């Protein structure tokens, strides 16, 4: 199969979809890989490294998209890339379509076969291709949250770990999945007072056990969310419903009740955000103040550490990309339920219920769409 890896053009996005090691694996399976020149520069990967791995490096992005059966990306296509979308094209990337109706409708209209990294789901409900970036984003959230709390950024001027004779900051994490658990580990590690909320008691027990009890676990309901968030110095939003829009658990009136200069980092923003006051930002202009609270809502948080993120991403995605390239999407989807669940759009049909429900559009099960 002909596989294309274009340079990411979304603002401040320095990751690349495949490392040279990943290219070696694809080429070893008999596939032709075409990489756009400079695609790996932001992750400190040179064109020469891609050539040595067996890729063809080309200058023009058009040559990557037009000459490829399967395009591997990191982030969803933006407007500048829309002209490259065509019927029958296989697109494998983070899509987050439930928060992006224009792209959803365009993929349907153009007949693209779009597979979302974030919706590859195992039988136990876990999301193996979202996990590495959730891990990175969770750990980063405390780092950027501490920065948001600095006075020059409009924050309260609170040090997360406190100081001798001074209380540490209160960090509240909403959601105990991969991102939330990793945020919790870092927050506890720097000495903050940490509470974490979730609807799943098993996840709360897990977080409590791995941190040796150095965290307060709280069942997530409206009353508990309001009580914890209102008293927080830093709130981390880490709520996820696979493939669907994130629920808005933190209302504007609740944000208004938070301490002046408190900070809110919404990891869920790429799925629409879990607070009513969240709106997408970029690494170039990451924060804004609303209702007296410093908001950090960057939609591609792992892009700020692209070297680490690129290698972690390829480690997770390569086996699935190989499965699609080796036997085609239809056979791969029939043989692999996790891949079948990841098909968001196929030949003009929406094949992920969460995406269809987000916009009130028709849903067709993937197995029906791809046929026998």
Features:
single chain; 372 residues; alpha/beta; Rossmann fold; 2 domains; 8-stranded mixed sheet; 14 helices
In short, what is this structure?
This protein has 14 helices and 15 strands. The protein is an alpha/beta fold and 372 residues long.
Description:
The protein has 372 residues and is of the alpha/beta class. The model has no long low-confidence stretch (mean pLDDT 96). The strands form two sheets. It has an eight-stranded mixed β-sheet, with helices on both faces. The protein has a seven-stranded mixed β-sheet with strand order 9-8-7-10-11-13-12, with helices on both faces. The radius of gyration is 21 Å and the shape is globular. α1 (20-28) runs parallel beside α2, α5 (131-148) crosses α6 (178-189) and α10 packs across α11. It has two domains: 2-126 and 305-370, 3-Layer(aba) Sandwich (Rossmann fold); 137-296, Rossmann fold. The chain has 14 helices and 15 strands.
Helix/strand layout:
Blueprint: E1 2-5, H1 20-28, E2 32-36, H2 47-53, E3 56-58, H3 61-66, E4 70-72, E5 90-93, H4 101-110, E6 113-116, H5 131-148, E7 170-174, H6 178-189, E8 193-198, H7 201-210, E9 216-219, H8 222-230, E10 234-237, H9 252-257, E11 263-266, E12 287-290, E13 293-296, H10 306-327, H11 329-335, H12 337-342, E14 343-346, E15 349-350, H13 353-359, H14 366-370
């Amino acid at each position: 199969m002909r596989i294309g890896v274009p340079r990411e053009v979304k603002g401040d996005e320095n990751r690349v979809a495949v490392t040279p090691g990943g290219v070696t694996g694809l080429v070893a399976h008999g596939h032709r890989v075409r990489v756009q020149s400079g695609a790996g520069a932001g992750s400190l990967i040179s064109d020469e490294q891609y050539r040595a791995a067996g890729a063809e490096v080309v200058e023009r992005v058009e040559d990557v998209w037009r000459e490829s059966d399967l395009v591997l990306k990191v982030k969803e296509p933006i407007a500048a890339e829309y002209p490259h979308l065509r019927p029958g094209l296989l697109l494998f990337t983070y899509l987050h379509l439930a928060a992006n109706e224009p792209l959803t409708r365009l993929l349907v209209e153009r007949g693209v076969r779009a597979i979302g990294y974030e919706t590859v789901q195992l039988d136990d409900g876990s999301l193996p291709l979202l996990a590495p970036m959730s891990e990175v984003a969770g750990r980063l959230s405390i780092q950027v949250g501490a920065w948001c709390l600095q006075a020059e950024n409009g924050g309260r001027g609170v040090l997360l770990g406190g100081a001798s004779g001074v209380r540490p900051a209160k960090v509240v994490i909403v959601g105990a999945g991969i991102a939330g658990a990793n945020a919790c580990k870092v927050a506890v590690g720097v000495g903050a007072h940490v509470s974490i909320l979730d609807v799943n008691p098993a996840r709360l027990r897990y977080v409590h056990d791995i941190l040796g009890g150095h965290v307060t676990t709280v069942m997530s309901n409206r009353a508990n969310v309001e009580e914890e968030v209102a008293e927080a110095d830093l709130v981390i939003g880490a709520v996820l419903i696979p493939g669907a829009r994130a629920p808005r658990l933190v209302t504007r009136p609740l944000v208004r009740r938070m301490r002046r200069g408190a900070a809110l980092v919404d990891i869920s923003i790429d799925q629409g955000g879990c607070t009513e006051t969240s709106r997408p930002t970029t690494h170039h202009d990451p924060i804004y103040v609303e209702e007296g609270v410093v908001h950090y809502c960057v939609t591609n948080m792992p892009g700020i550490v692209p070297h680490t993120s690129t290698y972690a991403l390829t480690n997770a995605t390569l086996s699935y990309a190989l499965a699609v390239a080796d036997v085609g999407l239809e056979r791969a989807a029939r043989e692999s339920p996790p891949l079948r669940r990841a098909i968001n759009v196929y030949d003009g049909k929406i094949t992920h219920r969460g995406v269809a429900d987000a916009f009130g559009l028709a849903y067709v099960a993937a197995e029906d769409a791809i046929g026998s």
